[in-house]
TrEMBL record:
SUPFAM superfamilies assigned: Periplasmic binding protein-like II, Winged helix' DNA-binding domain
UniProt keyword list: DNA-binding, Transcription, Transcription regulation
Record-annotated HTH lysR-type domain positions: 6-63
InterPro entries given in the database record: LysR_HTH_N, LysR_subst-bd, WH-like_DNA-bd_sf, WH_DNA-bd_sf
Naturally occurring in which organism (per UniProt): Rhodococcus spelaei
Designated name of the protein: LysR family transcriptional regulator
Top-level taxonomic group: Bacteria
Family from the record: Belongs to the LysR transcriptional regulatory family.
Length: 323
């Protein structure tokens, strides 16, 4: 039994002796100094336990045993080349695919535009979009089941890297018949915290942003916990109760007057939307191209008078991480 695998370079050298008739010719073609080639063959002879070269003043040629080993070396080298060929094909296939995991607000309201623009830049990339909440996006990115993630969460777990790609704002919305729709003065934060609301499920970026903003207040139990902005919007339209949603998710309904925005005094619910990825810090390939495209956008949609703007593009080495 060999204590370790033979080096492929020395097998290629042995095959070269068989093909070209001498060790000097084989080492020259392989670009190896002859003394180094001779030492490599001696190590292989020690491994196999038999001489492989007949060393003569006129040059070194294969022994009968060396001829047998050279024959099998050809097969090993052919298999190794096939392995590298398959691996290269897999790398090229992966390079031509992009798997994205995006939180629901980003996936529903921003990703279609971003991917439409990206398709014009690189139409040959196959794109797979997974719609999750922010906690699930972090899990996807950490597990390597996607190439890039987009989240609304205010924090990003280590060791993931992140960079801001856009901003949006959460707003309080109610049905036009709700008493808050007729208020002449803003709600207080305490009033909002003490009111049962229709909210997203724990783990979503929208829920996390709201929970962080109200963490110092006594909170009423949620009126309903729903798994998507669309479901919450439908609940508000049906008069179930007030809700806190991204302005992106209710822009059309606000413009039509189907829901009303309610001002809350002293509550800032603007948030940063981020791209997140695994180390290394430098993001390459289609994922890097997508993030750079998104961040080059000077403006995104205008929603109910509230801007959703792409932030300035920093140097890639300044991508942020937070715990």
């Amino acid at each position: 039994m060999f204590s370790r695998w033979p080096d492929l370079d020395v097998l290629e050298l042995l095959v070269g002796v068989d093909d070209h008739g001498s060790l000097s010719a084989a080492s020259r073609i392989a670009g190896i100094a002859q003394p180094n080639a001779s030492r490599a063959i001696k190590r292989l002879e020690a491994q196999v336990g038999t001489p492989l070269l007949q060393r003569k003043p006129t040059g070194s040629t294969l022994t009968p045993e060396g001829t047998v080993i050279a024959h099998w070396s050809r097969q090993v080298l052919a298999d190794a080349r096939q392995l590298l060929h398959v691996a290269e094909g897999m790398r090229e296939k992966r390079a031509a695919e992009l798997t994205i995991s995006a939180s629901m607000t980003v996936a529903e309201h921003l990703m279609p535009r971003w991917l439409g623009q990206f398709r014009h830049v690189d139409p040959n990339v196959t794109i797979h979009l997974q719609v999750r909440n922010s906690t699930q996006v972090f899990a996807d990115v950490t597990a390597g089941s996607c190439d890039i993630g987009f989240v609304e969460s205010p924090t990003v777990p280590r060791p993931l890297h992140s960079v801001a790609v856009a901003r949006d704002r959460l707003i309080v919305v109610v049905h036009p018949d709700h008493p808050w729709a007729r208020r002449r003065r803003a709600l207080s934060v305490a009033e909002l915290a003490g009111t049962p609301l229709v909210v997203r499920e724990p783990g979503s970026g929208t829920r996390t942003t709201l929970d962080v903003a109200l963490h110092e207040y006594d909170r009423a139990a949620p009126l309903l916990e729903l798994g998507s902005a669309a479901a919450i919007r439908t609940s508000v339209l049906s008069g179930v109760g007030p809700a806190v949603l991204s302005s992106l998710a209710v822009s059309d309904q606000l413009a039509a007057g189907d829901v009303k925005a309610v001002e809350v005094d002293g509550l800032d619910l603007e948030r940063t939307l981020r791209a997140v990825w695994r180390p290394p810090r430098q993001l390459e390939g289609p994922a890097g191209d997508l993030v750079r495209l998104v961040r080059r956008a000077a403006r995104l949609h205008m929603t109910t008078g509230n801007q959703v703007a792409a932030e300035p593009i920093p140097d890639s080495s300044r991508s942020s991480r937070s715990g």
